[in-house]
Amino acid sequence: MKLGGIEAGGTKFVLAIGDEYGGIFEKTVIPTEHPEITVPKVIAFFEGKGIERLGLGGFGPIDINQNSKSYGQIQNTPKTDWVGYPLGAALKDSLGVEVVIDTDVNVAAMSEAKWGNAKDVDSCLYITVGTGIGAGAYFHGQTLKGLSHPEMGHIKVARHPDDTYKGTCPYHYDCLEGIAAGPSLEKRWGKKGHELAENDKVWEMEAFYLAQALTNYIYILSPERIIMGGGVMKQQQLFPLVRHKVLEMLNEYVSSPHLTEAEIDQYIVPPGLTDEAGIKGALYLAAT
Amino acid sequence: MKLGGIEAGGTKFVLAIGDEYGGIFEKTVIPTEHPEITVPKVIAFFEGKGIERLGLGGFGPIDINQNSKSYGQIQNTPKTDWVGYPLGAALKDSLGVEVVIDTDVNVAAMSEAKWGNAKDVDSCLYITVGTGIGAGAYFHGQTLKGLSHPEMGHIKVARHPDDTYKGTCPYHYDCLEGIAAGPSLEKRWGKKGHELAENDKVWEMEAFYLAQALTNYIYILSPERIIMGGGVMKQQQLFPLVRHKVLEMLNEYVSSPHLTEAEIDQYIVPPGLTDEAGIKGALYLAAT
């Protein structure tokens, strides 16, 4: 089936024509600006391409309840230009095709489960650590949603004893996203993440926060694999630090061979689809 | 179908003969002692009753992976007599029927979704606050499990500024269970929970911890309803305190009419099946 996919992120939109098997025939990337600038560009990309359906993995909060009147509408977000914008309806009306909507991280979890680093298991969690922090989960054939979609980046974490930075989140200050996403690194340390690569203290603190979150996700969801993506996770030195701290925090409470020094490097892993987890997931979503 | 059900808790085992529609024909309660004392009593209750299958909702950690060699075996628990005990296999071998196993809180969530206070929605979370703290979830027809089962009572929470009590959890000290389950109330304040009913400070602190946990569960799982049971929740004054603090902590970040002062008393609720959620869930589980 010829499908359209959109990975609508906070800084960029990835647009693609492809199929439900992970094939991508055409792809482009545009910046996330005001919806009146960005959305016409999205429509122009897909118009006349003959797509049968469109899948959208969007930044949240976004209404993903198919029975809701505001399905596909952006909700309260620090990106104020987008609050209340009916993204799903705008695309459906202009392109005349069914638009299926889930969160960007839910569709990334789904495509990692289909084709990436979780294809051998029945459940996984995908977390992105970048401009923001979000996570999605795929369990036994379904993405996780209920009252709304999860907002796993906004959980409260205990503060590192040496951290005096108040946090960036306009809703909670020092929730996980407020204290561990890319912008908080830059504001706390005065430099961008990639300029801090050699400063061990930075990554020890970052791992302390991320490991707390992962430990909570393990206690609450018990996924069979955790995939960590996003710009901050390009700092590969974070992986062993996070894995080590997760084991330390769990303190052997959860019995699983994967939660041991011997196997945790196969449990907490980078994305198998590198930067294409989101867009391939959006294409797969279109066919559901 | 004539079914057997067991709600295996940390202080008592509830045993019942019933059916998959919530019917209970016969029921008894025995204390949780050493497995060599308790298990023969369980077998004696079911023997000769003609049950076709047996469902067991057990205290955790317990292996609930049907493909595992140790399916139904109790894992690391502070109840050391039970560590490594093959509860599922012992029952199957003695009674000659299939034994289906999940956690006590997962089956409680399932039966509240079938017949109790979540029967009008597709997902719910059930948390028990008593001798320990555990929570289970039921989403779109399945209980939540993956690598293992969730251990939601062991999440880390931020300490109340006035709390100097170190916590009771042998694995994590001041995780949620270590700092907010019944035994921690008694040790911190020097009296049992029901003797502290008039002390507002006790319940303000307890609500602070429970609301943190619920806020995390909402961010991570987004259940359509939260049901709070267990001995500590018999203190009805906790409900409005917890609801209020959850709204305060969410700070309007999650858009839902249920997460407002007007509707939260229909979102965070006591069990509809009072004390029978676990045993009815175990019976239903037997038929799955």
From TrEMBL, chains A, B:
The keyword Lyase does not apply. The keyword NAD does not apply. Its cofactor is Mg(2+). It comes from the Bacteria. Keywords: Magnesium, Metal-binding, Zinc. Its EC number is 2.7.1.4. InterPro entries: ATPase_NBD, Carb_Metab_Reg_Kinase/Isom, ROK, ROK_cs. It catalyses: D-fructose + ATP = D-fructose 6-phosphate + ADP + H(+). Pfam families: ROK. CDD domains: ASKHA_NBD_ROK_BsFRK-like. It is an enzyme of class 2 (transferase). Gene3D superfamilies: 3.30.420.40. Belongs to the ROK (NagC/XylR) family. This is fructokinase. It comes from Gracilibacillus salinarum.
